C-alpha cells in the first residue's frame, strides 16, 4: 500500500509537470534561517561537486526556486522530491535556489529539508525565536565576570576543560531548553552528565572534565 501511495503521488507530480511545468514546492517563497554555523553548504551551482561557502549562523534566507542537479531530468527531480519524506536520500538530486538577506545567493541541497528540517536550520518563526535567545546568550556572556579568554570561547560555542556548568550551558546555547542532569558512576565516584544535541559533557564537582560527540545519522548530503 505504501509503495502504491508513493507511486500515485509521483504520477500526480509528473502529470502536473507535463501539463503546466513542475509543480510549485511549498517551500518556495518562504524564509528560513541558519542556526548553526558552518554546517550548511551553499553551492555556486546545483551540484554537490560545485564550490561554494559554509553558512554562518544567524543568517536568514528566502527560497526562490527549485533547481534540479546537473544531469538530472525535471521529471526525475520532482518525483524524488514527491517521495522525499519516505526516501529522504532521494532528495539529494534537488536543490533550492536561495538568497540571503546579506545579498549572497546560492543553492542549498534539498537533503537538509527531508525527512524533516535539519537541526542546522529553522523556519521563519523558529529562527526569530532562536535569534532572540542567541542575543540574550551573548548579552549574558558579555556581562559575566569571566576572563576574556573564557568569554571568547563561549561566544564561539567552544568548550574548555575547567568550565563550570553555567559556562558550558551558555557556550553551547542551552538557554532555551535546559537538559536534565544525570548522575553517572565513574572510577572516581559519582559525576554529572549533560547531553545536548550530539554533545555529552561530564562534570566532577561542577567542573567540566571531558566531553564527547555522539554518532548521529548524517543529515548533510
For the biggest sheet, the summary is:
5 strands, antiparallel
**Topology order in helix (H) and strand (E) letters:** HEEEEHEEEHHHEEEE
* Bulk shape: elongated
- Separation of the first and last Cα atoms: 29 Å
Q: The CATH topology of the largest domain is what?
A: SH3 type barrels
- Compute the number of helices: 5
Q: What helical percentage do the residues reach?
A: 25-40%
Identify the CATH homologous superfamily of the largest domain: SH3 Domains
Radius of gyration: 21 Å
CATH class identity of the largest domain: Mainly Beta
- In the CATH hierarchy, the architecture of the largest domain is Roll
How would you write the strand order of the largest sheet?
Answer: 6-5-4-1-7
Total number of distinct structural domains = 2
Derived from helix and strand composition plus strand pairing, the structural class reads alpha+beta
Account of the protein in words:
There is one protein chain. With 221 residues, the chain is an alpha+beta fold. The protein folds into two domains: 2-124, SH3 type barrels, CATH 2.30.30.40; 144-213, Beta-lactamase Inhibitory Protein, Chain:B, domain 1. Helices cover 29% and strands 28% of the residues. It has five helices and eleven strands; from the N terminus they run αββββαβββαααββββ. The protein has helices spanning 2-20, 74-82, 124-143, 148-155, 165-172; strands at 31-34, 41-43, 52-54, 59-68, 94-100, 105-109, 121-123, 182-186, 189-196, 199-204, 207-213. It has a five-stranded antiparallel beta sheet with strand order 6-5-4-1-7. Strands 8-9-10-11 form a four-stranded antiparallel beta sheet, covered by helices on one side. The chain has a two-stranded antiparallel sheet with strand order 2-3. Strand 2 and strand 3 form a beta hairpin. The protein is elongated, with a radius of gyration of 21 Å. The relative contact order is 0.12.
